[in-house]
Design a protein that fits this description.
alpha/beta, 326 residues, 33% helix, four-stranded parallel β-sheet, single chain, 14% strand, five-stranded parallel β-sheet, 10 helices
């Protein structure tokens, strides 16, 4: 069987959530499910055998991260592979002026797959053009975060049993939130999805996101300024933080950062099966009391991220069970 992540034998990178077809996405989610069910079957997949060296993941994080970087590293370690890399631009040759292109050329000689986070939108595209191994975008500016999107899809699918016909509320920073933009681009490919866009006017979803929904048959959206008026119709409430680093004006950040805070009383009108998600880190947009509420799924969501990244690493390296995912 051939690797579905290599089209015509070409090296495959995951830079945008749309780089994966719906069939490939479903295959990755099925593989992640199997890893959860039978972890022992995958424990040595990257350990190397028969004289082959163990596989190595390079994490090139030019921007701070906790969950994404550590879940990538945990994923590779659980597969029996090794990890190397840096956790900030200050600890890399970027401080000397080295380009992303030169860095990935060099690192391609040390690792079998690269996960990269960068504050500049489009940096992973540059990396993918010059790398000799697969590149996974671990977040670029306010643009895209495909492995978080896979994590989100897995959470919704496992918790609600489907990705079709759902009403998804997206709340908070919809202008700069790359996780929101990526999730919309993935979910418009499933029929009957309705989006409720809950944000202050200053942080409403950009036109290109709204156009994605408008241009997708069977999908639609409404915008609202109040979480309470939307709660009863939601299957998913996806909370986001108002990110200081995405603002040019600190006064605007201070004015808006507490605009949308989820607490237990706001959940009283929710459907029993509705789930609350958040890409984390959380500041104060979800009250700590919500953590024990049966609707809360954000910590489980973070845990699913490791299994999704394990599935993606296996597939890009053609180590999936049976040699392929699809």
């Amino acid at each position: 069987m051939t690797n579905p992540m290599k089209r015509g034998g070409a090296l495959r990178h995951i830079v945008d959530s749309k780089d994966l077809s719906v069939a490939e996405t479903e295959a990755l989610l099925r593989l992640a499910d199997d890893i959860i069910a039978r972890p022992g079957d995958y424990a040595g997949a990257c350990a190397g055998s028969g004289g082959e060296a163990r596989k190595k993941l390079a994490t090139l994080f030019y921007e701070p991260s906790t969950r994404t970087r550590l879940s990538f590293e945990a994923a590779m370690l659980d597969l029996g592979g090794g990890v190397l890399g840096f956790s900030s631009a200050d600890s890399s040759s970027a401080v000397k002026g080295e380009s992303v292109a030169d860095t990935v050329r060099v690192v391609s000689g040390y690792a079998d797959v690269i996960a990269m986070r960068h504050p500049k939108e489009g940096a992973p595209v540059v990396a993918a053009k010059h790398a000799l191994v697969p590149v996974i975008n671990a977040g670029d500016g306010g643009h895209n975060h495909p492995t978080q999107t896979l994590t989100d899809l897995m959470t919704i699918r496992r918790e609600l049993g489907t990705l079709e016909g759902l009403t998804v509320g997206l709340c908070g920073d919809l202008k700069f939130g790359r996780t929101v933009h990526s999730l919309v681009s993935a979910m418009v490919r499933y029929p009957g999805v309705r989006f409720v866009l809950i944000s202050p006017r200053e942080l409403r979803a950009p036109d290109y996101v709204l156009n994605m929904i408008r241009e997708s048959p069977g999908c639609d959206y409404v915008e609202c300024l109040n979480m309470d008026e939307a709660m009863a119709r939601l299957d998913v409430l996806y909370m986001t933080r108002v990110q200081k680093e995405r603002f040019f004006n600190e006064a605007d950040y201070v004015r808006l950062k507490d605009s949308f805070i989820l607490d237990t009383p706001k959940l009283r009108g929710a459907k029993p099966e509705m789930i609350v998600m958040h890409p984390l880190p959380r500041v104060n947009e979800i009250s700590a009391r919500v953590d024990e509420n049966p609707h809360a799924r954000y910590f489980q969501q973070a845990a699913y991220g490791k299994f999704v990244r394990m599935a993606l690493i296996l597939t890009l390296l053609n180590l999936g069970k049976g040699g392929a995912v699809l």
